[in-house]
Amino acid sequence: MGLGKGGTILAGEVYAEAKEYGYDNGYSIGSDNVFEYGRDDYDQYFSDVSEHESDGFRQFSPFEFFAQLLNSQSDFVRDRAWDIYDRNVAKGIDQAWKEYIEMLDSEE
Questions:
Q1: Which of 72, 70, 71, 60 has the alpha carbon at shortest distance from 17?
Q2: Which of 30, 85, 97, 102 has its CA 20 to 30 A from that of 72?
Q3: Can you give the pTM of this predicted structure?
Q4: CB-based contacts of 90: which residues, under 8 Å, 6+ apart?
Q5: What digits encode the pLDDT tens for the residues 29-74?
Q6: Looking at beta carbons, which pairs linking 39-44 to residues 24 or more positions away fall under 8 Å?
Q7: What is the DSSP letter of 57?
Q8: What is the phi/psi pair of residue 61, to 5°?
Q9: Does residue 3 sit in helix, strand or coil?
Q10: Can you tell me the mean pLDDT for 13-40?
Q11: What is residue 1's predicted lDDT score, i.e. its pLDDT?
């Protein structure tokens, strides 16, 4: 990440990091767990994976370093960055499910 005036990290770069990290984490956790669910279990899958990401994954490094970066920003930037992160976790989880269903469809 680049630094702005006075050594601060630019908000746009924080948002970009939140977007990429959120998607990657959601996709990775979703992909690792998707095979435990049947075709009609999306709601349970999404709930379980979201819970695992927020209650388990966020407790360990390197996530703690990412959280520290977000939490060190101004209130506005911090809140927006967390929102971007959470929305992109959901997108990653959804993408893992979509690919799983496409795989199931191709096997039929």
A1: 70
A2: 30
A3: 0.88
A4: 26, 46, 50
A5: 999 999 999 999 999 999 999 999 998 888 888 899 999 999 999 9
A6: 39/101, 39/104, 42/97
A7: G
A8: -75, 145
A9: strand
A10: 95
A11: 44
